[in-house]
Amino acid sequence: VLQGTYSYVLQDDAGQVAATHSVSAGLDYASVGPEHAMLHDSGRAEYVSCSDDEALKATVALSRTEGIVPALESAHAVAEGIRLAGGMGKEQVLMINLSGRGDKDMGIMARELNLQGAGPRVQGPGKASL
Amino acid sequence: VAIRFDRKPGIVAYLTAGDPDLATTREIALAAIDSGADVIELGVPFSDPLADGPVIQRASERAVARGTRLTDVLGLAKQLRQARPGCGLVLFSYLNPVVRMGMKQFCAAAAEAGADGVLLTDMIVEEAGEYLGEMEGNGLAPIFLAAPTSPDVRLQSIGAASKGFVYAISRVGITGTQDSVAGDAAQLVGRLRKCTELPVAVGFGISNAAHVRAVGEFADAAVIGSALVALIEKTGPADAAKAVGEFIAGLRTG
Question: Residues A25-84: pLDDT tens digits?
Fold first, then answer.
């Protein structure tokens, strides 16, 4: 139970909640929504993990091939999509849900990808200069 | 249940177990009891101490960093019970460490340690079925928080589910000291009186004798938390028990 929600929580065996890190602010949290816990328990969804680096690479890949800049949260799904597509046939269809846009993450992307014109590390969105 | 407030107002003393260390918490708790505290709320430190202000947050961080675990606090409770058989003893915890241990195991361990009651800050009456069953089965008093924002229908559920006493939160916000007791508190206690015969203790921001006297006008007991934790932080391990004892002795004389 973290912040009033009963769900899966990253914690130690004494029930102390673990510190977290993610390049994506929306995923930088020690728990998940209870809907996900239910989908996991019922077997209706399968959950996988993805590193910061894989998500950033997927961001670049989708931006360059499709001209769509995904939010860093969604980029985790793109990374898994790229991985799965490697084992699929050309006639098969794979759908990725892009849940958000990457313009909100430009400052983080510029810093993490060392893009030209990246500003210094800033707190909060909208302050980085590109 | 040994939770009684024979002197008015009663004093409930909250301590973060393991700050600065478990042995010192034991000495502080004994000094508090011997100086007039009716009930000790022995706090399990937690990584995410919701509703707590900076003073108790810091204490929780220090105690967690020292590796203080729920099982350690249960062990300390047992020591306190053996040393002071007549004192009121409440285990105070956030829900997650208890869920991690298992509700059934925790309630049995709390009873075995000799606790009179349990206060789980983020346990709400609407979700308390299993908890209340285990508390009942182990002869323990479940203590719930009532807030100025709780509507009467919730106060009725809280009153019906509670034993020992009801903890009335004096104001909207987090724990920590304030200049005077908010008018919200008297109004909340008045509403609670219509829902329960149990004693009502008022906490959040009660930090000196004047506050205790003010609370005594309308409630049965005052909960002193952040003021004690801040005193312990300031005093240091060697003198903390003596300082807390003197502070508690002064709360009814001011």
Answer: 889 999 999 999 999 999 999 999 999 999 999 999 999 999 999 999 999 999 999 999
Q: From the list B69, B99, B101, which residue is nearest A1 (CB)? A: B99
* A13 at interface of B, judged by CB pairs closer than 8 A: yes
- pTM over 0.90, yes/no: no
| DSSP string computed for B219-240 | -SEEEE-HHHHHHHHHH-HHHH
| Distance, CA of B211 to CA of B224 (rounded, Å) | 10
Residues of B serving a catalytic function are 41, 52
Amino acid at A109: M
Cα first-last separation, chain A: 40
What integer is the mean pLDDT of B128-137? 98
Chain B residues whose C-beta is within 8 A of a chain A C-beta are: 46-48, 50, 64, 69-71, 94-101, 122, 127
| Contact between A99 and A74 (Cβ < 8 Å) | yes
Strand partners, B90: B41, B117
Structure tokens at A104: 């909100």
Interchain pair B100, A6: CB under 8 A: no
- The whole-number pLDDT of residue B30 equals 98
Q: B11-46 pLDDT, tens per residue?
A: 999 999 999 999 999 999 999 999 999 999 999 999
**Number of Cβ pairs closer than 8 Å across A and B?**
38
